[in-house]
Recover the amino acids of this structure.
C-alpha cells in the first residue's frame, strides 16, 4: 500500500481524504494557497506545501506545482478530491510521466466520460438514451441562439468541463440564450480553464438521480445504489438523499445496470457517478458522468457501509474489488444538507468573513441514528471569496426516511454559526416542508416553493407555544441567577412574578413558569381568561451564554439557537427565526407604547448585494435605464452575478468601477 499520498485540493474534501488515509496508516501531504495558509486541511495533514497565490488559476489548477510538491515530499500518489484538476484528462497523464499514481480513473476514461460533450457521444454509441441536444462546440452567442432555436426552448447551456453548478444557465428565449452563453463560458474559463459549452433540451419538472459506480483495474464494476439530488438552486445541489423516494427496485436495477455497462464500455476503474434526469413516471435519460468522487458521497457510504475514499485508494494501488454486486445492500436512509456561506434573506448571495462562532452538532451514532459532519473550517477561521462557499456537509442516517429527516432537522437546529450569513435557516425550513417530506419533489422545488425568495416560517400553534415556553424558562433561569449575586442590599429578598407575557415575533403568549435550576421546569399556557389551559414539563441543562438550548419539551427532544438582542433574544427553530421578548404584564403594557423604528429608504441606490469584485459597470451617469437592464456585474465565490434595474429610471451617479472590491451594501450607483 502507498506510504504517503498528496491531496490536490482544499476544504472539507481534503479533510475527508486525510481522515481515511489516517485510518489506513497512510501519511498525507496538503497543498495550500496564500488564502489557505491557516486552513484546517493544512493543520490535519502530516506535511503541507505552499503552491501560490489565492486565485485557483495560480495555485490549485497548476499541475506543475502539484507535481513539484509530490517530488518535494516523496508522495507516491495524488487524490484530486472534486473540482479543480479532478476531471482534467491531462492530470493523470502528467503524473504518470513522473511516476506518480493518480487516485482516480484512467485518462482515457476521463476523456470519454469526464468531458460532457464526449460523454454524450460515448453514451449514444453505447445505445444509451440521452437528452436531445447539440454535442458540437458552440462558437459564440449567436451560434448558441441558432442551436437553441433548433432544439426548442427551454434549453440548458452547460460548460463541457463543468460541475458544481458552475458554467450552467437555463434559457427560455433567444435573449437569455445569448446572455447565458456568455456567462456560462466566462464562468467555465475561470473555474475550469476550459470555456467550451454545449446546449441540450431542458426537461421540465425533472428529478436528478445518480448512480454511484465503483470499478477496479481488473475489469470489475459494480453500482452502490442511487442518490436523489433534486433539491437544487441555480443548478447547484443543496440537499441529497439515498436512496431515492421515487425509485422502485426494478428501476433501480435498470439504472444501475445501465451505469455499469457504460462504465465498462470506457474501461472505468475508480469511483464515479453516472447522472440521470428522471421523469415523475420513472423514465430516465443519461445526463453525464462525473469521473471523480462526488460531493454527496457520504449518503451512499452511510447506507452501504462502504468507504468510497478507501476503495479509490485501494483500486489505484492495483487491488481488486473485494465487493461483488450481490454484496451491496442498502440499509436505512441518509439525508445530507450542504451548509453554505450564503445569505438566504438576500436571495442566497455569497457571504464571506470570519467564523466568529462555529459550533456544529456533535458527531454521534446511537439509538439507530447517525450524525456526521464533513467540514473544512473551524471557529476563528475565514470564509474566502476565492473558493466555493461550502462550510460543511451535515449528514444523518436512520432506519427510515422520516427518521433521517427528523434527525437532520434536530441537527440543523443545533448547528450554530456566527460572523457570516449562512443557509441553515433555509435548510431547517425545508426539513419541515410537507412537499419535501412527502418525497414528491423535482429540481424546480426551490423555485416553485420559494418563488419570492426565502422568508422564515412563522411560529404558530404548538411551535409558538414551544418557543414561548423555552424563552420563559431561559428568562426564569436568568432571574434565578441574579437572585444569587452576592452583596445585594439587605432587607426583603427580590421576588419575581411567575406570570409572563412572551412576545414571539408579532404573537404574544401568556404563561406562568415554575421550577428551579437544575429543573425540571413547568410552564402553563394561559387561556383568554388568564387560566392555565395546559402545562408542559421542560428539562435542559442550558445556562446563560450557551448558544444552543438543548433539552426536552413534553418529553420531545428540542434544539433552539439563541442570540441575544437588546432586551430580548432571537430564537431559531425549524426554519423559524423570530425576536422574542419576555415581559411581566406591566412591562408588556409599556412596551406596546414604544415607537417602532423605521428603516431608511435606500430605493434610489444600487447596493452591492454581497462582498465581491466588480467585473463591469454597464451604465454611465445620465443614462436612462429600463426595468431589466443590466447595470453591473459582480463576481463572488467564482460566480458572476448580473445586477439588473428593478424599474425604469435615470442614473445620477456611478460610485464604483471595474476592479473595485466592494463590501456588502456598498453603493454602486445612485438613481435620480
Amino acid at each position: 500500500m502507498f506510504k504517503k499520498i498528496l491531496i490536490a485540493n482544499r476544504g472539507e474534501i481534503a479533510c475527508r481524504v486525510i481522515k481515511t488515509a489516517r485510518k489506513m496508516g497512510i501519511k498525507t501531504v496538503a497543498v495550500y494557497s496564500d488564502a489557505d495558509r491557516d486552513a484546517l486541511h493544512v493543520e490535519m495533514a502530516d506535511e503541507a506545501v505552499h503552491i501560490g497565490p489565492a486565485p485557483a488559476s495560480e495555485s490549485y489548477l497548476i499541475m506543475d506545482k502539484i507535481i513539484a510538491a509530490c517530488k518535494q515530499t516523496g508522495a507516491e500518489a495524488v487524490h484530486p478530491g472534486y473540482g479543480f484538476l479532478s476531471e482534467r484528462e491531462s492530470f493523470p497523464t502528467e503524473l504518470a510521466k513522473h511516476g506518480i499514481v493518480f487516485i482516480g480513473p484512467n485518462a482515457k476514461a476521463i476523456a470519454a466520460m469526464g468531458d460532457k460533450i464526449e460523454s454524450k457521444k460515448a453514451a449514444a454509441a453505447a445505445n444509451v438514451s440521452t437528452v436531445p441536444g447539440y454535442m458540437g462546440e458552440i462558437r459564440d452567442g449567436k451560434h448558441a441562439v441558432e442551436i437553441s432555436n433548433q432544439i426548442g426552448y427551454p434549453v440548458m447551456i452547460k460548460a463541457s468541463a463543468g460541475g458544481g453548478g458552475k458554467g450552467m444557465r437555463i434559457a427560455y428565449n433567444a435573449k437569455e440564450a445569448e446572455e447565458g452563453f456568455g456567462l456560462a463560458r466566462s464562468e467555465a474559463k475561470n473555474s475550469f480553464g476550459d470555456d467550451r459549452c454545449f446546449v441540450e433540451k431542458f426537461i421540465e419538472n425533472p428529478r436528478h438521480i445518480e448512480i454511484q459506480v465503483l470499478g477496479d483495474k481488473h475489469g470489475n464494476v459494480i453500482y452502490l445504489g442511487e442518490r436523489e439530488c433534486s433539491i437544487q438552486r441555480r443548478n447547484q445541489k443543496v440537499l441529497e438523499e439515498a436512496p431515492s423516494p421515487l425509485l422502485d427496485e426494478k428501476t433501480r436495477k435498470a439504472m444501475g445496470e445501465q451505469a455499469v455497462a457504460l462504465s465498462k464500455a470506457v474501461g472505468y476503474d475508480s469511483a464515479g457517478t453516472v447522472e440521470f434526469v428522471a421523469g415523475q413516471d420513472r423514465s430516465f435519460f443519461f445526463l453525464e458522468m462525473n469521473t471523480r468522487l462526488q460531493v454527496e458521497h457520504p449518503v451512499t457510504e452511510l447506507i452501504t457501509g462502504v468507504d468510497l475514499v478507501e476503495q479509490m485508494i485501494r483500486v489505484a494501488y492495483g487491488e481488486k474489488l473485494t465487493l461483488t454486486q450481490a454484496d451491496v445492500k442498502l440499509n436505512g436512509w441518509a439525508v445530507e444538507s450542504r451548509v453554505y456561506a450564503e445569505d438566504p434573506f438576500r436571495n442566497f448571495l455569497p457571504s464571506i468573513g470570519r467564523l466568529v462562532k462555529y459550533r456544529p452538532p456533535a458527531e454521534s451514532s446511537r439509538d439507530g441514528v447517525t450524525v456526521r459532519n464533513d467540514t473544512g473550517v473551524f471557529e476563528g477561521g475565514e470564509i474566502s471569496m476565492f473558493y466555493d462557499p461550502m462550510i460543511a456537509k451535515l449528514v444523518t442516517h436512520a432506519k427510515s426516511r422520516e427518521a433521517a429527516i427528523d434527525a437532520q432537522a434536530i441537527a440543523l437546529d443545533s448547528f450554530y454559526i456566527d460572523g457570516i450569513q449562512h443557509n441553515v435557516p433555509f435548510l431547517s425550513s425545508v426539513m419541515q416542508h410537507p412537499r419535501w417530506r412527502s418525497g414528491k419533489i423535482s429540481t424546480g422545488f426551490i423555485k416553485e416553493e420559494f418563488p419570492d425568495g426565502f422568508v422564515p416560517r412563522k411560529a404558530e400553534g404548538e411551535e409558538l407555544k414551544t418557543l414561548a415556553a423555552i424563552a420563559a424558562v431561559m428568562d426564569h433561569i436568568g432571574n434565578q441567577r441574579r437572585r444569587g449575586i452576592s452583596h445585594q442590599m439587605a432587607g426583603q429578598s427580590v421576588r419575581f412574578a411567575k406570570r409572563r407575557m412572551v412576545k414571539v415575533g408579532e404573537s404574544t403568549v401568556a404563561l406562568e413558569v415554575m421550577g428551579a435550576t437544575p429543573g425540571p421546569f413547568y410552564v402553563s399556557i394561559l387561556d383568554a381568561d388568564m387560566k392555565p389551559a395546559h402545562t408542559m414539563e421542560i428539562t435542559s441543562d442550558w445556562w446563560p451564554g450557551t448558544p444552543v438550548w438543548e433539552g426536552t419539551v413534553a418529553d420531545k427532544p428540542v434544539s433552539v439557537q439563541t442570540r441575544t438582542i437588546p432586551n430580548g433574544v432571537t430564537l431559531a427553530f425549524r426554519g423559524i427565526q423570530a425576536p422574542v421578548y419576555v415581559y411581566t404584564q406591566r412591562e408588556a403594557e409599556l412596551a406596546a407604547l414604544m415607537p417602532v423604528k423605521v428603516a431608511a429608504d435606500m430605493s434610489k441606490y444600487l447596493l452591492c448585494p454581497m462582498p465581491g469584485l466588480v467585473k463591469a459597470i454597464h451604465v454611465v451617469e445620465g443614462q436612462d435605464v429600463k426595468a431589466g437592464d443590466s447595470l453591473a456585474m459582480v463576481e463572488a465565490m467564482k460566480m458572476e452575478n448580473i445586477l439588473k434595474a428593478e424599474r425604469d429610471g435615470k442614473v445620477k451617479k456611478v460610485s464604483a468601477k471595474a476592479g473595485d472590491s466592494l463590501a456588502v451594501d456598498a453603493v454602486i450607483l445612485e438613481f435620480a
Notes: The longest helix spans residues 461-483. The mean pLDDT is 93. Residues 229 and 496 are 52 Å apart (CA to CA).
